[in-house]
Design brief:
530 residues; 18 helices; 53% helix; 8% strand; disordered N terminus
């Protein structure tokens, strides 16, 4: 038998790394079905991990909400997006390197004896990614809606990328096809490949992206609502965050309002003060007490800004100058309203009910409304979102602009909605706009998502990244339908010709190899006879 020295050195190194075997190998025989199944499994794990990496990038838009949830339940802060992306990147890197080794060995016509360590690691990779998918489906199911939206955004690019990738794969598949031992398995594999290729060729028929449109049809740029101010630049729901939002040229402040134990409406999102204040230092033992059970004088003792520098929740950094600036205290609603009137800033807020037994449990809405009416702010600057006693609010404050947090029903006459971006389709958005109903969506943080809804025609979005989205002059991409049709047809034609060429070339290489093998066998017989 021929020794390993007959092989090219690079192929020998690949084979030893792939099989974890440092001994000299023998001349490769025909590949078994088991070996081919393992290379197929490696490819599927690679694709599965790559899909999961894509999903993790999409859910990053809402990952801050998950971080907040985990902090409230566990009591310690961690940016889980870094953990998930890092682990997924490591798994994908391993699968990629192993798959490249396998494909190179196929092209070198070498055996594919995968070592048991790689088999175990591949199974662990598949299990880890599957656990991530199951967790997302069980604990955060609504994120699949975000993934579906992302596919509308990226589908044209994913289509072209998939066509290129599958076309390149033809070289490896052709090398395996002409050299495989099992005729049934190789024919089944070829049939699957052809079906996948044909599906990719016609997939644009099912792609619907709002940004495939003529440039002159692009709707106006959506307005921005600062979610709790500018929380990437300053601590949320503070006056400092409000002023940072104003500096970013955003003219609507979205906030959360609670009522203190002595009847003062103030800005706070969480039911507990642990995440956004230093309550553990000022009032030890009261960390899990409801925010509404504190008096206004107690709330004013708390620092609502230091946590931002310590945890850096959006990985945007923070300046020590924040520690010496005013505006890091928990603000009252009156303080916010006065500043909003001065700077001509609109206000929209969620009104959070007090806990059971609170002195204002039944009248918190009236207290909040009275505070607004006594403030200097003009009524037209108030976007009223709470549904409780809306008719009474309309009667007392007819100048408020009423915003509804639900879909329009058949008999509804309202003219503005505030909805989650995951709960409305592009067709619904355009239907609302055609009926002169303004649409605000929350919470949109990434330019790709903002671009999607810009093309869809939304009126405004609530965002944590107002300073980033404000700088966008146009959506990230807008593609003329005729241009996309041309790209589609050209890509499919080039891909088809490339696949045919790959199979033809690999067939010729296979014949040359067979002839050389036959000559080698004949030469060995002659040597044995002599």
């Amino acid at each position: 038998m021929a020794r390993a020295g007959c092989w090219p050195t690079c192929c020998l190194c690949l084979w030893r790394l792939h099989s974890c075997d440092c001994s000299e190998s023998r001349k490769p025989a025909k590949r078994s079905t088991c070996e081919c199944i393992w290379i197929l499994f490696c490819f599927l794990v690679f694709v599965w991990t790559m899909i999961w990496l894509y999903v993790t990038q999409i859910v990053n838009n809402d990952m801050h909400n998950f971080n907040e949830f985990m902090f409230r339940s566990q009591g310690w802060w961690l940016d889980w997006s870094l953990v998930v992306v890092t682990v997924t990147a490591v798994l994908l890197t391993y699968c990629s390197l192993l798959l490249i080794l396998l494909l190179c060995l196929v092209l070198c016509s070498q055996p594919l004896r995968l070592h048991w360590i790689h088999k175990v690691l591949l199974c662990l990779c598949a299990a880890a990614v599957s656990l991530g998918v199951v967790f997302l489906d069980v604990k955060w199911k609504e994120e699949w809606e975000a993934v579906a939206i992302s596919l509308q955004v990226t589908a044209p690019f994913l289509h072209i990328g998939a066509v290129i990738g599958v076309s390149i794969l033809a070289w490896v598949l052709a090398a395996y096809y002409w050299g495989a031992n099992s005729r049934v398995f190789r024919n089944v594999l070829l049939a699957v490949y052809i079906l996948v290729l044909c599906a990719l060729y016609v997939s644009p028929l099912f792609i619907s992206s709002p940004c495939i449109m003529k440039a002159e049809q692009l709707p106006p740029k959506p307005r921005l609502f600062g979610h709790r101010g500018a929380p990437m630049l300053a601590p949320e729901n503070t006056m400092l965050s409000f002023y940072k939002m104003v500096e970013s040229n955003v003219d609507v402040f979205e906030s959360d309002v609670m009522v203190s134990h002595d009847g003062i409406p103030f800005l706070m999102h969480d039911n507990f003060l642990l995440r956004t204040t230093n309550i553990g230092q000022v009032f030890p033992g009261r960390e899990r007490e409801d925010s509404g059970n504190f008096t206004w004088s107690e709330l004013r003792e708390l620092d609502a800004g230091e946590w931002f520098l310590q945890r850096n929740p959006f990985r945007t950094g923070g300046s020590q100058a924040l520690l010496s600036q005013q505006g890091r205290k928990i603000p009252s609603l009156s303080e916010l309203l006065a500043a909003a009137e001065t700077l001509n800033i609109s206000i929209i807020f969620d009104l959070r009910p007090p806990p059971p037994g609170h002195p204002y449990n039944e009248t918190y809405l009236n207290v909040t409304l009275e505070t607004i009416l006594k403030s200097p702010i003009r009524q037209e600057l108030v976007l009223w979102l709470p549904d409780e006693e809306r008719d009474e609010v309309i009667a007392l404050a007819p100048g408020f602009r009423q915003i509804y947090g639900r879909r329009r029903q058949e008999n509804d006459t309202f003219d503005a909605v505030n909805l989650s971006y995951k709960n409305i389709s592009v067709s619904e958005i355009r239907s609302y706009i055609q009926n002169n109903i303004t649409v605000n969506l929350y919470v949109v943080n990434y330019p790709w998502l903002y671009s999607h809804f810009w093309c869809a025609g939304v009126t405004s979005v609530t965002t944590n990244a107002c300073h980033i989205l404000q700088d966008l002059a146009r959506p990230l991409w807008v593609l003329d339908p005729k241009h996309y049709l041309l790209i589609w047809i050209v890509a499919d034609c080039i891909s088809f010709l490339h696949v045919i060429w790959a199979f033809v070339i690999q067939r010729k290489c296979s014949r040359v190899k067979e002839e050389k093998d036959a000559e080698g066998v004949l030469l060995m017989k002659i040597q044995n006879l002599t």
